[in-house]
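One chain given next:
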Amino acid sequence: MTGTSRNGLAVLVIAFILAVVPVGFARLLLVSAPTADLEIAVPDYLIGEPPSAMTTGDPEEVIEHVYAVLSTDLTAEGDIPRAFATRLPENIAEIELVEERKRMFTAAILPLVLRANEIIESDRNRILAIKARFESRGSVRSYDEKWLRTVARTFRVPIGEKLEPRVFKDLLLRVDVIPPSLALAQAAMESGWGTSHFALQGNALFGEWVWGDDADGIVPRARAAGRNHKVKSFNELLDSVKSYMINLNRHASYRSLRLRRAALREQAEPLTGPALAPSLADYSERGQDYVNDIMGIITYNGLEDLDSVRLARG
């Protein structure tokens, strides 16, 4: 594609935003989305096989896939297209109107958040099925136990030589979804709506830190003397989203979030960003001020409307 064609495509995207996509996101009807076939011994989030609609990361293809999401009338009945960008559009920081930039960012990241949750739901449902068999028969199949132990290692749930009911309780507390509004708000906060150096160069949406010379990451330009951390980088945006969700689901600092989520499930209440955000005071050194900002992003941008959307059937 020539430079002129690329520019023309970008202009079409912006024109579409201005003409069609509304400022607020309306709630879509709930439609259950199918999940990938389960592997016998390996959790879905470790398989590493991209969905069929995943892009190659080529800038032109990213714009085309984001355009596919923007083409969905979010005020109408329907589902979010399975358009998965491997990285953000290169021109996102050049979009001058803030609302346009926010829509572009949301269109790129929302399908990835939904896909990551879809994978988690698949694993959670399998845990529930194995738990039911364990409770009725007192044992599980060998390949199911092997799979459970793999999941437990990832989520740092200790398992002895024999399975115990406690293992299922601990796993179900951790293997659960993150509301899209919360993930989007945190990604927006940490990446400046996709314009940060870390997001554009390292697909780092959530500002996760890593340490060590061998760790894959980007050294912050303003890193204080004597500090040796990096901002964790990723090959693809979906990897960043999955890493963020695993972090919330297993780190000791976010136990209160997991307990709050479990309580909501027990009460048959919906899992929403505003319901869980107050449990994230430990996510940032700013504490409650960070929580207030996340709540503000969700409310001001109407992101809670996205907590009930699903991916279109594949």
